[in-house]
Amino acid sequence: MKDALLNRDETPAPLPDKAEADRGGGAGTTERGRGARWWAEIVGVFWLLLIVLGFHSFIAKPFYIPSESMLPGLRVGDRLVVTKFAYGWSFVSPTIPNPAAIVRSLVLRQPADSWSVSLPAWHGRLLGRLPVRGDVVIVTPPGTNSDYIKRVIGLPGDRLEVRGGTVLLNNKPVMRGPIHYLDIPVDVNSPCNPIDYPDAQLRRPDGTLVCHLPLVTETLPNGRRYDTVELGPSPGDDYGPITIPTNYVFLMGDNRDRSADSRFSSAELGLGGPVPYENIGGRAEFVTFSLDGRATLNPLTWPGSLRAGRAGRSLHPEDVTS
Questions:
Q1: Which 8-state DSSP code applies to residue 306?
Q2: Catalytic-role residue among 61, 69, 190, 305
Q3: Which DSSP string corresponds to 163-210?
Q4: Which one of 50, 72, 109, 240 is CB 3.0 to 4.6 Å from 161, fit for a cystine?
Q5: Is 150 among the residues known to form the active site?
Q6: pTM of the model as a whole
């Protein structure tokens, strides 16, 4: 009886609630939650990369000038915007990163032709349009994965010849103005190498070292004009005549005596003649900014390496007919 009374007065043990019941599996739940968060981060990064690559492939992408073949308008260190939709899209339009090339370039400091890979070649373009004579374009030479930047001089059906440095289109010489000069400040990215530009280095009275370049203004038949560098006789001063095939374009650099372009074979690192228009990757629009080559990994050096007056410079030639 006493035992019965004592048992009746004792407080019953509380039943475990659901949280307590699940606590035994808490470690596994935490791990699952952590894994879900990591997976969500990976998915987010994937979609971000897909959006960026899609924009680069179909709308516009940045481009870096690595050579002096387009002087005086473009200098080594210039960063540009290139539109991908100007002529429609082809197999060279998509931007597909090449991790091996990126590692070789950034980590191993080895030369890499390109940080991307191209799709297998096919003929034609989606919503394709031919460039306008005088456009500055990015081109991938057939059989390579490198990008060049040149100016469109000849179009399909043109009879093109270069004679004594003067371009002839359909038996008519392209109009050339008198020689005039431009002084480009010498810096790390524009050293004015005496081998390439003999006697061009000059020191101004204020002590500034400049590259004193002789220029000739060319005016194409459609009224678009631009400056070219004229250094005297060179191997590319005589070429052709040829007739440019259908859906091909003839490209030349503005630094005529220092440009490997359609006048030179692929063995000479040129474009090997007229280029199929599906190998054009886009049209150069404007300079975003330009670096003189003094910048290092230290962020404090970045502002001082910016070249003044380059940002926003249009890359469309002047049209004297408008």
A1: B
A2: 69
A3: ETTEEEETTEEPEE---EEEEEE--SS----TTTSTT-EEE-TTS-EE
A4: 240
A5: yes
A6: 0.81
